[in-house]
Write a structure and sequence with these properties.
This protein is mainly beta. The chain is 0% helix and 49% strand.
């Protein structure tokens, strides 16, 4: 599966064997800005991403999607942060983001 984050905050999932669109997940109304980063959790059942920053602030929105259903499961705003990188721990339970200056948040 290939995940593509778009500038409107939506995410598309494609099956790479035949490039069939599996899910086109529209952003929630509260999402602001483009998808900057995406990472699959181990097993591929969930996708984690960061959206933003909001054009009027430096807030980002971390989101988790169910890749089988094509639905958002969870989201959380982080204030005063600009995410330019996202990584998950091998067990998928901890996410780390990095800003423009190289500062990491877990």
């Amino acid at each position: 599966t290939l995940a593509c984050g778009l500038s409107d905050g939506s995410v598309r999932l494609f099956r790479t064997a035949d490039w069939k669109l599996l899910h086109d997940m529209a952003p929630p109304r509260s999402a602001a800005g483009p998808i900057h980063n995406l990472a699959f959790r181990p097993g591929g059942d969930e996708l984690v991403g960061s959206t933003g920053p909001d054009p009027s602030s430096s807030d980002i929105l971390l989101r988790v999607w169910d890749t089988r259903r094509g639905t958002q499961k969870w989201s959380h705003w982080i204030s005063g942060w600009s995410s330019m990188g996202l990584a998950l721990a091998p067990d998928g339970r901890v996410a780390a983001t990095v800003d423009w200056k190289g500062t990491v948040r877990i």
